[in-house]
Design brief:
The protein has helices at 16-33, 57-72, 154-160, 178-193, 283-301, 315-328, 345-358, 368-382, 389-410, 420-425, 446-459, 465-469, 489-501, 506-510, 516-528, 530-533; strands spanning 2-8, 37-39, 78-87, 90-99, 102-108, 129-135, 138-144, 165-170, 196-201, 203-206, 209-212, 216-218, 224-227, 234-240, 254-260, 307-311, 333-337, 361-364, 413-416, 438-439. It is α/β, with parallel strands linked by helices and 578 residues long. The strands form 4 sheets. It has a 7-stranded mixed sheet, with helices on one face. Strands 5-4-3-2-1-14 form a 6-stranded mixed sheet, with helices on one face. Mean pLDDT is 91; it is low at 564-578.
Length: 578
């Protein structure tokens, strides 16, 4: 048995001194706990993903100098530290093997992901050598993230070459069901390589990405031996039993073998230094945790302290405010209610009740007189016209201006409240409800908004039931409902998921039982709204294909999946505030 510490850290891109401090704290903990090996996340020194920062020589040099400082603090322990390595003009996503005050070996990531949110081939060269540690208590192999995901691949090659424990360091972003995918993958790789898998993952929010942690150890028999919690930093030590390792050998990779004496006596078979496995979260708790962490880190890592949220009395703004309070505390969330003549009395009352339940301050700024002043002056310039979409969107833009005024006055971050269903269909107003610094729900479908609200109320009831029960409405004209312009969300969301996340054609989606004309209308809305989504604030990725980093389509494009007639009120797509 080998005592291996897993440090699940929340590193910040570019905060090299802060990242070093967290790594050195983990090293100190590992020494104190009697660990023999310490595993830390991928690119833990510079933070992940560093993107074009690695094109700055000063940044890469600072990262290497920081690694040397870290290595000097490592004593008998073997510490695996992620950093950016450089050889001439070539950069590598690498793992340093630190021991007795220095770097004794470096592994360079071989499989560089270049799909979805990943763009590693833009920056890094692939490595071509395995790294193994021959110790008196077993043979250890080291690899990085993607190296584990493919068979054949470097992780399997390590097992074939005789590694009995494989340490895989990661910065693996979260999306729904990712934990299940990872666990199943690790089980398969452990059994195939005949080696225990030590998987350590980063945790924290970084712009649109959320890293969920959930570091784990899988035995060579495929059984889960330990798992750390999701969405929080965690340090612990696990007694890992080496597997038999492969006997086939490998001629596909050069192999660097380091001889290392591990400190102390091996752990006994009964030794266990941390809880075996933290239970997986429910689907709703998992998404809620991702959203909460992403907002907390976006606020902190960008120098804000407080946020401002527009409360409409609708479900989106209610959920946004609830998550903001859970992430930041009630003293750091300001709500602004901006009723118009079309706002119902119960919407205003529901907003006040929500604010009271959350313990947050709410400012009430009616917009009716502001709108009247606009319309008087605009009529003089543009002439008389029947009230329509322009007047509706003007209300949304007034509200956006008021929220940005609060932001400028107090220095708060405006959190936009639009969801993925709205962003997909363009059912949102540029410079209105789309105004803000962070779009918390932009990757959450409308049906999921309701599910998350109900889940949050199951923990403690804070969102008034009236908000959950009411029909969705922008309240920009009398008796307006979302269903006036969009299909019901229980029909709309499955169509959007099929088209956006699985790239299914109109015919394939219709074959699932949906009305073909409705499918083509929805697809047309999605295709025509690309220009608006490009101007939306960033927000956390929680699905397999989020707008922005994941789904990259041209704005100017003649290609249309559907040539059907679009609903006229939403061709321009600009609709409602939240």
């Amino acid at each position: 048995m080998i005592r291996i510490a897993l440090a699940q850290l929340n590193q910040a891109v570019g905060d090299i001194d802060g990242n070093v401090a967290r790594l050195q704290s983990a090293i100190d903990q590992a020494h104190s706990a009697g660990a023999q090996v310490l595993a830390t996340p991928e690119l833990a020194v510079p933070g992940y993903p560093p993107e074009d920062l690695v094109l700055k020589r000063s940044f890469v040099d600072a990262n290497r100098d920081a690694l040397d400082r870290i290595a000097r603090s490592v004593r008998e322990l073997v510490a695996v530290i992620g950093f950016v390595d450089q050889d001439g003009d070539h950069l590598y996503n690498a793992a340093a093997i630190c021991h007795r005050g220095g770097v004794i070996g470096v592994y360079r990531k071989q499989l560089l992901p270049n799909y979805g949110v990943f763009d590693e081939r833009r920056y890094f060269e692939p490595g071509d050598e395995l790294v193994m540690l021959d110790t008196d208590q077993g043979i250890l192999g080291v690899c990085i993230c993607e190296d584990l995901w493919f068979d054949p691949g470097p992780a399997i090659a390590l097992g074939d070459a005789g590694a009995q424990v494989i340490i895989n360091i990661n910065a693996s972003p979260f999306h729904k069901n990712k934990l299940t995918e990872r666990t199943d993958l690790l089980r398969a790789r452990a059994e195939r390589a005949r080696a225990a898998m030590v998987y350590v993952n980063m945790v924290g929010g970084q712009d649109e990405l959320v890293f969920d942690g959930a570091s784990m150890v899988i035995g060579a028999d495929g059984e889960l031996a330990a798992r750390w919690p999701q969405f929080q930093e965690h340090f612990g030590v696990v007694a890992v039993s080496p597997g038999p390792g492969g006997a086939a050998g490998t001629d596909r990779f050069r192999t660097q073998t380091l001889t290392v004496h591990l400190n102390g006596r091996p752990a006994s078979d009964e030794a266990r230094f941390d809880k075996p496995a933290v239970d997986a979260l429910s689907p709703e708790a998992e998404i809620y945790g991702a959203l909460r962490l992403s907002l907390a880190d976006y606020v902190a890592k960008n120098g804000f302290e407080k946020t401002v949220v527009g409360l409409s009395g609708g479900i989106d703004s209610a959920l946004t405010a609830a998550i903001a309070v859970d992430a930041l505390g009630p003293n750091n969330v300001l709500a602004v209610a901006m009723p118009s003549e079309y706002s119902t009395a119960h919407s205003l009352q529901d907003s006040k009740q929500l604010a009271a339940n959350l313990g947050i301050e709410v400012l009430q700024v009616p917009i009716a007189r502001i709108l009247d002043a606009y319309l008087r002056d605009l009529t003089g310039a543009f002439g008389e016209a029947e009230s329509g979409l322009a007047e509706e969107n003007l209300q949304a833009r007034i509200r956006g201006n008021l929220l940005m005024f609060a932001s400028n006055r107090y220095g708060h971050l405006v959190v936009a409240t639009g969801n993925k269903s709205e962003m997909a269909c363009g059912y949102a107003t540029l410079y209105g409800d789309m105004a803000g610094g962070f779009g918390l729900l932009k990757d959450v479908f409308k049906k999921e908004v309701y599910e998350l609200a109900r889940w949050r109320n199951s923990v403690k009831e804070i969102i008034p039931q009236a908000i959950i029960d009411k029909a969705p409405s922008a309240e920009l004209r009398p008796d307006q409902k979302d269903s006036d312009s969009l299909p019901p969300y229980d029909i709309l969301d499955p169509i959007l998921e099929a088209y956006i996340e699985r790239d299914e054609s109109a015919e394939e989606i219709a074959a699932r039982g949906f009305d073909e004309q409705v499918v083509r209308d929805v697809i047309s809305l999605v295709d025509r709204a690309e220009y608006k989504r490009r101007q939306a604030p960033p927000g956390p990725k929680v699905t397999t294909k989020a707008f922005g980093r994941d789904r990259r389509l041209p704005i100017s494009s003649k290609w249309r999946e559907s040539q059907s007639v679009v609903m006229p009120e939403t061709v321009t797509g600009e609709r409602k505030p939240r």
